[in-house]
């Protein structure tokens, strides 16, 4: 990513101002599997933030780190929460607006036809 994109955009990673603030006031406390980096203010531990690896999208933060960011848990997720169970699925980011988004039958782009109504439906007709 170029210097201008880093300087003037906030939606694809940290801007220069955020990077400078993070370097001077924050300390890194952890990383998740997606490459997001989590910080805590050096003097005020209640101030917490994330620097995304890629697009700034809160749905890309795993639930455990979401709990830490919001102050629901005080300690880091690996210390506060029980280990992940075998039946738990990995969280997925919000796919709205992407080709992987859910499209019900009959929606544009789904390639499927909406099922017919069941017969108990009476359409309105003007008198």
Structure description:
There is one protein chain. Helices cover 21% and strands 12% of the residues. By secondary structure, the protein is α+β, with helices and mostly antiparallel strands. The protein has a domain at 3-80. The chain has a 3-stranded antiparallel sheet with strand order 1-2-3. It is elongated, with a radius of gyration of 22 Å.
Q: Short description, anyone?
A:
One of its GO terms (biological process) is response to oxidative stress. The protein has helices at 3-8, 16-25, 63-69, 77-80, and strands at 26-31, 37-41, 48-51.
Structural class: alpha+beta
> Unreliable runs, pLDDT <50, ≥5 residues?
none
Largest sheet: 3 strands, antiparallel
Number of helices: 4
Report strand %.
5-15%
The radius of gyration computed from the alpha-carbon positions, rounded to a whole number of angstroms, is 22 Å
Strand order of the largest sheet: 1-2-3
What overall form do the CA principal axes indicate? elongated
The overall strand count is 3
Q: Roughly what is the average pLDDT, rounded to an integer? A: 86
Residue share in helices? 10-25%
How far apart are the termini? 62 Å
The succession of helices and strands, N to C, reads: HHEEEHH
């Amino acid at each position: 990513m170029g210097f201008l994109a880093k300087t003037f955009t906030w939606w694809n990673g940290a801007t220069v101002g955020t990077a400078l603030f993070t370097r001077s006031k924050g300390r890194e406390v952890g990383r998740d599997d997606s490459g997001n980096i989590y910080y805590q203010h050096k003097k005020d531990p209640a101030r917490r933030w994330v620097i995304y690896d890629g697009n700034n999208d809160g749905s890309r933060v795993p639930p455990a780190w979401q709990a830490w960011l919001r102050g629901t848990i005080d300690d880091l997720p690996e210390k506060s929460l029980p280990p992940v169970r075998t039946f738990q699925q990995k969280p997925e980011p919000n796919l709205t607006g992407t080709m992987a988004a859910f499209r019900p039958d009959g929606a544009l782009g789904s390639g499927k036809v909406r099922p017919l109504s069941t017969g108990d439906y009476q359409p309105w007709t003007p008198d």
